[in-house]
Design brief:
13% strand; two-stranded antiparallel sheet; Methane Monooxygenase Hydroxylase, Chain G, domain 1; 2 domains; alpha+beta
Length: 194
């Protein structure tokens, strides 16, 4: 199953949880309703996520992530944990922030679902290098290391794009002093941005 189909399947599963149950975890802003989801942090330990799945599925209906269920694929722990965390969030109204994070509908469930955080070309090189150093202490930056799929072009701006986006995926925030949010996928060649 290719990455786009897996992503669309995950979105449909999360949206199914959100819209298949009473929306108690939302905020009204003007006439718009900002819907929130509780999803697994990709960096959470697999055993902790599996333990939470086991717990949550004893409380809520997890048939969708069982074999034959609509959200069974992809069969990876973090995807099943997304479903279980969000189901429990809908029922109990709390999100286990040790292994999960709360996100809003700006990042999931819209027609334009994916956004990326990339460096501003006018940002000072020393600020970008500092950001790369910081980000790579928090998130996986192996793709911009020698031999990595995003190492070339070996330029601070290019590496900062990747590091900023990795941090954006992890923390759900983009440093708008030196970066910008775009809906244009910055991936190129074998360098794939998540």
């Amino acid at each position: 199953m290719d990455k786009i189909n897996v992503f669309l399947l995950l979105i449909s599963c999360i949206l199914g949880v959100a819209y298949g149950h009473e929306m108690t975890n939302s905020t009204s802003i003007g006439q718009k309703q900002l819907v929130k989801w509780c999803i697994a942090q990709p960096s959470a330990p697999q055993d902790k996520l599996q333990g939470f799945i086991d717990y949550a599925c004893g409380v809520v209906d997890c048939s969708a992530i069982q074999p034959g269920g609509s959200c069974y694929y992809p069969t990876i722990v973090v995807s099943h944990a997304d479903y279980a965390l969000n189901m429990l969030y809908r029922v109990k109204g709390s999100c286990n922030l040790y292994i999960a994070k709360i996100t809003n509908s700006a990042s999931i469930g819209r027609k334009q679902v994916v956004k990326w955080c990339i460096a501003q070309p006018s940002a000072p090189q020393e600020k970008l290098q500092g950001l790369i150093d910081y980000a790579c202490g928090v998130v996986d930056c192996s793709a911009i290391q020698p031999g990595g799929s995003c190492y070339y072009p070996n330029m601070i701006l290019s590496h900062a794009d990747y590091a900023l986006n990795q941090l954006y995926r992890y923390k759900s925030s983009c440093n708008l002093y030196i970066a910008t949010i775009t809906s244009v996928n910055p991936s190129y060649g074998s360098c794939m941005y998540s």
